[in-house]
Amino acid sequence: MSAREPVLSVRELTVTFPTPRGPVRAVDGLGFEVHRGRTLGIVGESGSGKSVTSLAVMGLHTGASITGSIALGGRELTGLSQRDLNRLRGRKMAMIFQDPLSSLHPYYTVGEQIAEHHRVHFGSSRRTARERAVEALGEVGIPEPRRRAREYPHQFSGGMRQRVMIAMALVCEPELLIADEPTTALDVTVQAQILELIARFQEERGLAVIMITHDLGVVARVAHDVLVMYGGRGVERAPVDTLFAEPAHPYTRALLDSLPRLDDSDKEPLRVIPGSPPSLLTPAPGCAFAPRCPRPADAEELSRCESELPLLDGPTGHPAACHFPAYGGMAP
Ligand code: ADP
Ligand code: MG
User: Fold this and answer.
1) How confident is the model over 45-82, as pLDDT tens digits?
2) First to last CA, the chain
3) Does 258 lie in the same domain as 110?
4) Which ligand 1 atom lies nearest to the CA of residue 46?
């Protein structure tokens, strides 16, 4: 794989769930790339399709219809057998979640679980796998790793458990790490430590990271590039500094306006943007943000926003899916 080839390339991804009330299109026409040694922050309100996207990349959806392309290191993942996907998952790409307890088995020690993971993917001996597990626990900053490897998940604090998950994710040396709200359940100090740990590994190992969060504060800390999602679609994409300095999409601007300014201990999902998220059952023909958007200046503009879907074009630069993007700084 050449240095410039993305580790992950997602094109025109659409994920639809059949429901009794009709198909729910949770992700629609989404595209992005993640490169070696870079962190892509995916940000958006609760329900914008972030987790559905990450589960689609990991091949973890059952019963959803998935179209478009998901390529890992140039290899197409959509349409792969469950067996091939299982091999890649864990080995080439790994994921950590908000709640580590949901992915750890309560009846096995953390050392056993990490070792088993290593054995499955590398075919290593029990002894080697056990040694690697202890090393991995040490690498993620767990004191006395040999002793702690013999303990069970419930004996770890929330932050330590998330470190265990990171050890589990990294023990197979994946190329891509997806972190879905990994610090949302943690207090501010622990949150900072976990983000730092992920950032350190990504630098040391040249990992490609997707950091999924509803919190622009997290994005500001760790992301190199940002994709903003709204109603299952990408609405703006830019390098992190550009996004904060010159948010072009009215939704991104609203998100930035809702950032707490003095103290970021507020863990509530962002709910301060007036209005409610769009319906995924009966999507509007135009821009999903139009009903909440302050931008349309008159009836003519509004009619265009409501009827014509703005697209997020171009793989590079600073695209915004808006008919009236505000490039060039924060105008009122
Ligand atoms: P978030 O951005 O908060 O991670 P999700 O990706 O979890 O949002 O979900 C986006 C939307 O997809 C949800 O609001 C829900 O309507 C829909 N959705 C997710 N999973 C399912 C499912 N299994 N069946 C039906 N709809 C789903
Ligand atoms: Mg989510």
Assistant:
1) 999 999 999 999 999 888 899 999 999 999 999 989 88
2) 45
3) no
4) 3
